[in-house]
Amino acid sequence: METPQIIMLGTGNAVVTRCYNTCFIIKDRSSMLLVDAGGGNGILQQLEKADIRLGDIHDMFITHAHTDHILG
User: Fold this and answer.
1) InterPro entries, alphabetically (predicted)?
2) 6 and 24 Cβ atoms separated by less than 8 Å
3) Tens digits of residue pLDDT in 9-39
4) For 42-62, what is each residue's pLDDT tens digit?
5) Which of 10, 23, 24, 28 is the most exposed place for a label (fewest CB within 10 A)?
6) Alpha-carbon separation of residue 20 from 29, 30, 38, 69 (angstroms)
7) Rounded to two decimals, what is the model's pTM?
């Protein structure tokens, strides 16, 4: 059994300037779950840096409806 991985895509708060808003991927052998999406289209750049294709994300979980978690 493979241990799931947590891949951090962003660790910043709502007004970050140098790192992306909080979001991460939980990955196991057969699926990827995106937790939050950050605050804008920077999520695409973060996914590219992590070598993750958008089409490989199977599910998404939003922790709450603040713009720095849902606009990505």
Assistant:
1) RibonucZ/Hydroxyglut_hydro
2) yes
3) 887 665 665 656 778 999 998 899 999 887 6
4) 788 889 999 999 999 999 998
5) 28
6) 26, 26, 7, 11
7) 0.78
